[in-house]
Every structure is written in C-alpha cells, then in structure tokens.
Amino acid sequence: MQRHVAAAVEREDRLPEPIRTVAGIDVSYGARGRATRARGAAVLLDAQTLEVLDQATVECATTFPYIPGLLTFREAPVAITALEALSARPDLIVCDGQGIAHPRRCGVASHLGLALDLPSIGAAKSRLTGFCDEPGLARGSCSPLLDNTEVIGACLRTRTGVAPMWISIGHRVSLASAIRLVLQFAPRFRMPEPTRLADRLSKARA
DNA sequence: GCGACAG
DNA sequence: ATCTTGTCGC
Description:
The chain is an alpha+beta fold.
C-alpha cells in the first residue's frame, strides 16, 4: 500500500504563489487509565509573519503501535482530524517525520500530503533511513541524504551549532523549496514554527 | 543471527 | 513518543 501511495507522490513544486498560510501537525500520547490516548494538534500560521491564525486539538484512542516505517498508521488518522478542525485549509503542511526519506518512499508527510491533497514537507528530528555527510556547523548548511545513488532528502542545520533536521519532500514541494521553506519557518529555533507549536500544543494540559 | 529503527 | 534530575551553554 505504501509503494502504491509513493507512486502517486509528486516531487516537483505545485503550490500556490505566494504561500499565504502553513499548518503544522503533531501527535502526543498519554496513558488514560488502561488505554493510551492520542492527542493531535494542528496550528495554522501566516507563512510570511509566522503569526498564529488558528489552532485545534483532537483526542482519541490509540489504534496502532509505533513501528519504524509504519508511523503513518499510528499518527495520520489523528493528524487529519486535527487539521480538518481548523477554520481554513492551509496552503502547505509541515509534518514531524519523514516524507520520501523512507524505505518505501512513503513517510507520514508524503502520506498526509496525498491523503489531504495538500503540498507537504517532512521535517524530522532524526533519521529513519539513508546516509549523508555531517553538514557544516552554520545555520543553512546542508548535505544530501542518500539511499545508494538516490537523493531522498537533506540533513539541514536550522540553527548554528545545534543538531540538524532531516528534511524531505512530502508531496508537491521540491527538495530545494522544502529546504528554503524550512529555513524561512525556523528563524530562531531548531524546529520550524509550525511543528514546534503543534508539538507544544499537543503536549499542553487540556 | 544481529543491528538499525521517523514518533 | 514518555519518564526523570541535573547540567551545560548562550
């Protein structure tokens, strides 16, 4: 199924110009009695000023375990519900996880982009698959993430001297644009604002 | 058989 | 992802 979805993923830019809004999505977990509950959060921001325009959270039972390579089946259902609870559809989504930098080229960012028919970017805090050289220490330095000879993403330093982020095409956004946009969305912290705020919101006490 | 392994 | 205390650097 993932290979089928991967075949439909678009790796070239096909997004509005200018990009007006961007949404970040993330999911956190917590024990509620016996079962683990999942809470999804979506935050809508102005893509230029990074001002928060809207935010939403949803909560539900966890239905799938964490298995490397199958994160989509654990998080996507909650993430989609949270995104649809926003007052408007964004021009672009940023996800906490890989896009095509995945064994079958179908990480959660790609799967979500295709399912929602929205441009998407994968911005992960660690590597799932592939290899690359260590990027330079300066903000903006990056090195290609390779699986054999195929470029599947980039290791990008969003903050000088701080651990890099792992960026990949989600859907309808080229790798070059994904890198540029993540730098635009992360002017101050390691994580881009959309996912940083969604992460914080998903963990905030109800 | 062993190690790696988004969140 | 979650839990948990101190520690290091800007």
